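Bench notes, afternoon.
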Amino acid sequence: MVRRLPVLQNSAPEDAAAAERPKGQWIAIGAGFVFSFWLPLALVAVWLGRTLAGGILDSGDPEAVAQAGAGARAAYAAALVVPALLSFGFACWAGGAVVGRFGGSSGARESAWAATLAALLAAIVAALGGGFGSWPVAILTAMVLAGLGSLFGWLGGRWGLRRRPT
């Protein structure tokens, strides 16, 4: 005969505090998580993008850039941009997963809002720091990051919701 011992499930006071926290706070917490996940990933993405782009076109030689065809310039731009976008998308997914898993009453919608807030704050900081050539480029970048962030944040939130204990 197999004996089974009862498992006591005590809920910690931190769990109760997290469950009572307003959804707006989870949006801000999620945006902070997105930034903290994105910064190291962005460093790797910049290195990877420069490595990939260096194999396509030598950006240090202005004459080579001027003589390059449209396809080579497009491949060069894609090699620089795609790793950065992938790192941001993964950071939004991871931040959304944290909000979805531990966010109390928050869910995928708040995860998407957290990633969107992080995208807009990143675009504002880059624009104020002179990271964009013009305001239309800044607005387009903010829109692309917000769309990508909200999608991946929502997906991460859905994933985190499925991992909640029952």
